Amino acid sequence: MKPEQKLYAKVKKYIPEISWNRLENNSLLGTPDLLGYNNSGHFFTVELKVCKGNKIRFSPHQIAFHVKHPHNTFIIAEALGPGTVKLFRGSRIMELDACGFKLDACCLGLDACRLMLQELGA
After folding, report:
1. How far apart are CA 90 and CA 42, in angstroms?
2. d(CA 59, CA 33)
3. Interval 36-83: pLDDT, tens
4. Angle at CA of residue 16, ends 11 and 19, nearest 5°
5. Which among 9, 62, 67, 86 has the fewest CB atoms less than 10 Å away?
6. What DSSP designation does 31 have?
7. Interval 88-97: pLDDT, tens
8. What separation in angstroms does the CA of 115 have from each of 17, 25, 38, 45, 57?
9. Quick one: which of 99, 88, 1 has its CA closest to 46?
10. Quick count: other Cβ atoms within 10 Å of Cβ 6?
11. CB 30 within 8 A of CB 61
């Protein structure tokens, strides 16, 4: 299993209250990995990223998507090794691309991610 597939399995396991749909899209490059729907009836997208060091790699298409759609978009990144998981708002993708994993996140850990994503639109 690839690292991002393992991260998806963790997200599904630790955040089961969200209805997750994995997006496999070869037509629209840059489309995030997941479409989420919470109990408040709120849709949002999540890009999954796994990094070995500080640098998080984004394609130009992924950056363009988040720049064009700054609301209700998120990035969940995990650092290999310590297994630290952070949630970033998609509107911060340019900072995230420049600063990497050390950028302050809006949530640290899957429990905090779960709480925030459940509260969207409430």
Report:
1. 16
2. 13
3. 999 999 999 999 999 988 899 999 999 999 999 999 999 999 998 777
4. 95
5. 9
6. -
7. 999 999 999 9
8. 10, 28, 11, 16, 26
9. 88
10. 14
11. yes
Looking at residue 120, its amino acid is L
Q: Which residues, at least 6 apart from 95, have a Cβ–Cβ distance to it below 8 Å? A: 103
24 CB-contact burial (10 Å; exposed 0-12 / middle 13-18 / buried 19+):
exposed
Cα-only R_g, the chain: 13
* Tokens read off for 54: 């500080």
Q: Cα separations (Å) of 108 from 23, 76, 89, 103?
A: 24, 10, 12, 11
Length of the chain: 122
